[in-house]
Design brief:
The protein is of the alpha+beta class and 237 residues long. The chain has 2 domains: 141 residues, Transcriptional Co-activator pc4, Chain A, CATH 2.30.31.10; 56 residues, OB fold (Dihydrolipoamide Acetyltransferase, E2P), CATH 2.40.50. 16% of the residues lie in helices and 35% in strands. It contains 3 helices and 12 strands, in the order E-E-E-E-H-E-E-E-E-H-E-E-E-E-H. The strands form 3 sheets. Strands 1-2-3-4 form a 4-stranded antiparallel β-sheet.
Length: 237
């Protein structure tokens, strides 16, 4: 059982990150970025990209598509009086490829990616229904009140009110962070990455959670475990 989840899906020109910062919050974040004309990726820290906060209702409707009960679903996501059009639809009748639209961003997920997306959403939704919809919650839990199938009764917990979370998240401790760099070398188990501060570091491939291109000469955006970045002084301690 963990409290936070983050999974990124990167392609040649668009990146999509699904992020849940706490099981006690009744929403998740969906963040989109794309590669700019100069070959660099958009940087959310500079106000680039698009981040939306999806409610439990929206998660349920997205799962209806991912579970193939619906061909497509679209809506206008509203936050602070700003409306963003979102859409999830299968590319063809085989339902092997899922096309996502978030504002001006579009991302295609293949069968494996869409299945990972579906399983994470189902798991996160089950967690949040247990922990984010009760009046009493506790960060300290035991084996007796772990998440159980929804048809079973949930034991009592103790608790605090749901904290307010801003729309945009750039850094979450103990998960991963996005950082730009250039691949300078590679072994079977690690990449030698040169970062924007000219520091070169061997990063284990097991700690990289985004797609990358080994023969790419331009900068790429990497999603790397925070403990690795901290160890090499690449993020604030």
């Amino acid at each position: 059982m963990v409290d936070k989840h983050s999974q990124s899906f990167f392609g040649k020109s668009t990146g999509l990150t699904l992020q849940s910062s706490s099981r006690t919050e009744p929403f998740i974040f969906l963040k989109c970025i794309q590669k700019k004309n100069d070959g660099n990726w958009e940087k959310p820290s500079q106000g680039e990209g698009k981040t939306i906060k999806l409610s439990l209702d929206e998660i349920v409707m997205i799962l209806e598509v991912l579970n193939r009960n619906l061909e497509s679903w679209s809506s206008f996501h509203s936050f602070n009086d700003v409306k963003t059009q979102i859409s999830f639809q299968w590319e063809d009748q085989t339902k092997k490829k899922l096309k996502l639209y978030v504002d001006k961003y579009s991302k295609m997920l293949n069968f494996a990616q869409s299945e990972i997306f579906r399983r994470i959403l189902e798991h996160v939704l089950e967690e949040k229904i247990v922990y984010a919809t009760t009046l009493n919650k506790s960060d300290n839990y035991t084996n007796s009140n772990k998440v159980k199938p929804l048809k079973k009764k949930v034991n009592n917990a103790q608790s605090n009110s749901i904290p307010f979370v801003k729309e945009s998240i750039e850094y979450i401790d103990n998960i991963q962070s996005e950082i730009t760099g250039n691949i300078e070398g590679e072994t079977d188990k690690a990449l030698l990455i040169k970062f924007n501060n000219n520091q070169q570091v061997w990063i284990p491939k097991s700690g990289i959670h985004s797609d990358y291109r080994s023969n790419e000469s331009n900068d790429q955006l990497f999603l790397i475990d925070n403990w690795i970045l901290k160890k090499n002084s690449l993020v604030p301690m």
